[in-house]
Amino acid sequence: MGDVVAVDRDALGISTKEDWTDSETLANIAGGIQPVINDTSSSIHDIPAGRGTDGVVRLRNEIGMFLETMRTVIREYSDAAALLGSGQESAMANYDTTETDTTGQFDFLTSSTEG
Hints:
Blueprint: H1 9-12, H2 22-43, H3 53-83, H4 89-93, H5 95-113
Helix pairs in contact: 2-3, 3-5
C-alpha cells in the first residue's frame, strides 16, 4: 500500500458539520455503481464467432474496469469529504477500512490488466 497522508483536523480548525451530507451522498452514488457493473456483464452480448468477437470481450472488460475505477474515485471523494469536515464522525471512523478496501480493489484491477 502507498504512503498515508495524515491530517490533523484540530490543527487545521476543521470541524464536522452535522447538517452536511455530501460524504454520505457520494458513498451512496458509489454504492449505486455496483448494479450497473453487474448489468454491464449481462447486457453486452457476445456476437457470433468470427471477426469482432475479441472486440466484444475487450469492450465488456474495459467498461467494467472503467466503472470499477469510477466507483473507487467516488469513494475517495466521499472519504475526503468526511475527513475534511463535511461528513460525520462515524464516516471518518470508517475511513481507514474504506481506504484499505479501495486500495485492494485498485491493486487487483491494475494487476489484472498487466501482461
